[in-house]
Specification:
This protein is α/β, with parallel strands linked by helices. Helix content is about 45%, strand content about 10%. The protein is built from 16 helices and 8 strands. Helix 12 packs across helix 15 and helix 13 crosses helix 16.
Length: about 425
Amino acid sequence: MNQKIENIKIRDLVLWTENPRDPIDSTAKDQDVVNRAINDPHVKWELGKLAKEMGDYYDYSELPIVVYKNKKPIVYDGNRRVVLAKIKLGYVKGENLSVILPNVPEVLPCNVCSEDIALKSIYRKHVRLRNTWQPLERDIFASKYLGEDKSTFLRFDESTGGFITNRPELNQGFVRKEIFTENILLRMGFEFEGGKLKTRHSNEEVWTLLDDIYYKIKNKQITTRINRGNPLLVLDQRSKDIIESNKQKPLHYFNPPAQNDEVAKVVVPAVPLQRKTPIAKKKKWIFFGDKLILKSGDVNNLYSDILSLYNYVDSNTKAFSPKIYAVFRMSLRLLCETAAADCGYTGKKAIDEYIGKFYPLAKKGLSQDVKTFLHEQNILQETLPQLFHTGAHNYQSSISSEKATGISIILGAMLKKSHERQ
């Protein structure tokens, strides 16, 4: 079969479960695909944006590419438009898509062709001509449908349980070409053998290294213009120490934990979502983390005063400017100094010495969510002394509420180790 234009009822068109944009289980029904598209956990579909771009009427400028399999017309390209059409005509449920849909006919002209032609047309359109796919999707498609060898980028994602898939900030061209390469991975203590990933590190050390790279990219410390070419130079000292100390250790296979979101396998249940738009709410972090029970003295008194002031500000936000958090940063510096002095640390390095002893102990008791939050705020053992210094001397750079909250949480965890009432 070559190609031909055929008018097909929208009701009869079948959405492609193996769509490289966001594949799900091959047994999924149209409603499952639509639920996935509306929920859009990895921001691949953007149906609302497409509907607004199309306006009042269905866009005929590009015809769906259709392949008949078992006498069923499968939509290989144009699934987003067909999803909107099926919702508009009531063939699938889409109550949670809060956007005006374009008017559509009951029948659509489609480009019907063989699977081979369909795959080549899709690759030419989305990769060679328009470059609308991200690197990982291109690599998956080329490997699965065009017979190309899996790239290092794809093998690394598969071997780490979807580390790149679940972190869209990593799915960039420069990350593929300059960071997750065989050479860089080798220098970090990773190596592929027979398609499987081996490492010199423990699982905990692996995630420390990978999270470090991730947050450096997410927070724009590594970009196409900054620290490009040698990402290892900007890693935290903790990461550098792991790489250096494990250089002579033997390689072993890395077995990641089971994925929470297996993108290629999950079937989204055909049930209404509880919200109209998939907006992730920010977690409300508690100042100092938990209520502290400290031994009596200046440290406890100062802690109690700061917490009381914070609770008052938090319940009367309209009465204060956002810069009130600079006051809390200064107060946290004073609290840390007081705790250090109470532990016998004096002089210019008192805070550094206090952090050096109690930060590692405090970190062990933190949940992974808290560790992630602190890493996002760049609150680390090596950065914390400077953050306290900045909080006391730089008003303009001390107004971030999240930064102040993060510093209070780690300081609270350290106070538990140094001043908790027995």
